[in-house]
Design a protein that fits this description.
Order of helices and strands of chain A: HHHEHHEEHH
Mean pLDDT of chain A: 90
CATH superfamily of chain A: Winged helix-like DNA-binding domain superfamily/Winged helix DNA-binding domain
Number of helices of chain A: 7
Radius of gyration of chain A: 18 Å
Largest interface: A-B, 58 and 58 residues
Distance between the termini of chain A: 42 Å
Shape of chain A: globular
Strand content of chain A: 5-15%
Helix content of chain A: 55-70%
Structural class of chain A: mainly alpha
Oligomer: homodimer
CATH topology of chain A: Arc Repressor Mutant, subunit A
Low-confidence stretches of chain A: none
Number of strands of chain A: 3
CATH architecture of chain A: Orthogonal Bundle
Number of domains of chain A: 1
Strand order of the largest sheet of chain A: 1-3-2
Chain lengths: 128, 128
DNA sequence: CCGCATCCTAAAGGATACTG
DNA sequence: CAGTATCCTTTAGGATGCGG
């Protein structure tokens, strides 16, 4: 391992089992984290509005996802002590940076979907 | 939903439950997919070499991950019919594009790790 | 060396019901 | 409205053993 490439140096430790950034990546890029952060990129959401936006997520998973992201400092939780309660979720500056990168990833993947579908058809074809 | 923002248009459907790109995103950005693609960014790997590189992954999960990525057209599988068998995995052009974006994400997250750790300490502190 | 197949355990995730 | 708690089902994932 020469490690003269600057990008290599930064990325190297993520391959180590015990690397703590793996856990953050799972929160951020996992099934629900990526969608929650992407949704919050267009502004603050209340709990149930966010739940409607991220179609298919259960109440439990949304709460769990938001807690993890709040703990990591990517999402801010603002509670107005009114009745009925009003809780707003929004991105922190770090959350915004990561969310923006995730949007780029989503955009990239969506742009390649025709090729992906073609590849899948080819793959499924050759072994049927 | 006005949908006049160009980035919004591209991203919108990922929030729909039935969107097929969600599945691709899970393969790509999931716990193991992100590491496999990132590892392959520095060239072709044989199965067991890749397994050593992605520390902690089991044989089963690596095989499963590589199959999914191969089916999606992101990873190419080259078999040399020698004995013992020699199988090399490498990125397709689309795989390279996505891998590069993932490396940027990893780099970004790793750069924010000090802040993330601080946020976690604060969070855990206030509720103990 | 590559990599299925099987079995089994642990964790993710959904549905429902209930509280401030 | 914004959750928490519980139960239950499904899936992820590790270990092991065999075959090409």
């Amino acid at each position: 391992m020469a490690a003269t490439d600057p990008i290599e140096d930064l990325v190297a430790d993520v391959f180590a089992r015990a690397c703590t950034s793996r856990g953050v990546l799972e929160n951020v890029a996992g099934k629900w984290g990526i969608l929650a952060l992407a949704a919050l990129s267009d502004g603050a959401y209340r709990f149930n509005a966010l739940r409607r936006r991220v179609d298919g997520i259960s109440e439990k998973m949304l709460a769990q996802t938001l807690h993890a992201l709040e703990r990591d400092g990517l999402v801010r939780r603002d509670v107005q002590g009114t009745i009925p309660p009003r809780v707003e979720y929004s991105l922190t500056p770090i959350g915004e940076k990561i969310s923006f990168k995730l949007l780029e990833l989503i955009e990239l993947v969506e742009g390649e979907m025709p090729e992906v579908h073609a590849a899948r058809a080819r793959y499924d074809d050759t072994r049927r």
